[in-house]
């Protein structure tokens, strides 16, 4: 098992190739740190959703990500300078979409249901989303 005292950090733009590269780096880091596969997979899937939302809808140019590995999983901290937006509040679709043309809003549901614990804060003109993943 690797030393997990030092946090793992990434900066990710909304560019598809940048997101894919970040997902691979995060997956590799979590595997090397001994995070259970199902826990790591949830964190990796959520990374894409959070980054895309921040860049496409919030106007952020990049998202800073910090990962802390813990005994039972990991905590992923997302920060961006986009518009204020709390993905943990508000309405979202609870049911499956009728067609692929009707998938909007499901990403917020994915974020909320994938994390074991989550918090959002607006700190010094930045969005700060903290998601804990445990198995």
Automatic annotation (TrEMBL):
Histidine kinase/HSP90-like ATPase domain sequence ranges: 17-131
Keywords: ATP-binding, Kinase, Nucleotide-binding, Serine/threonine-protein kinase, Transferase
Record carries keyword Transferase: yes
Protein name (database record): ATP-binding protein
InterPro entries reported in the protein's UniProt record: Anti-sigma-factor_SerPK, HATPase_C_sf, HATPase_dom
Organism: Plastoroseomonas arctica
Domain of life: Bacteria
GO molecular function, one term: protein serine/threonine kinase activity
């Amino acid at each position: 098992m690797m030393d997990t005292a030092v946090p793992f950090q990434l900066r990710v733009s909304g560019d598809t190739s940048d997101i894919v590269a970040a997902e691979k780096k995060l997956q590799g880091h979590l595997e090397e740190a001994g995070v259970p596969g199902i826990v790591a997979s949830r964190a990796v899937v959520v990374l894409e959703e959070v980054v895309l939302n921040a860049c496409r809808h919030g106007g952020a140019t990049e998202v800073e990500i910090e990962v802390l590995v813990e005994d039972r999983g990991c905590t992923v901290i997302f920060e961006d300078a986009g518009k204020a937006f709390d993905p943990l509040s508000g309405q979202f679709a609870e049911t499956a979409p009728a067609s692929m043309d009707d998938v909007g809003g499901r990403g917020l549901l994915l974020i909320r249901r994938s994390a074991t614990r989550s918090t959002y804060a607006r700190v010094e003109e930045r969005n700060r989303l903290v998601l804990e993943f445990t198995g």
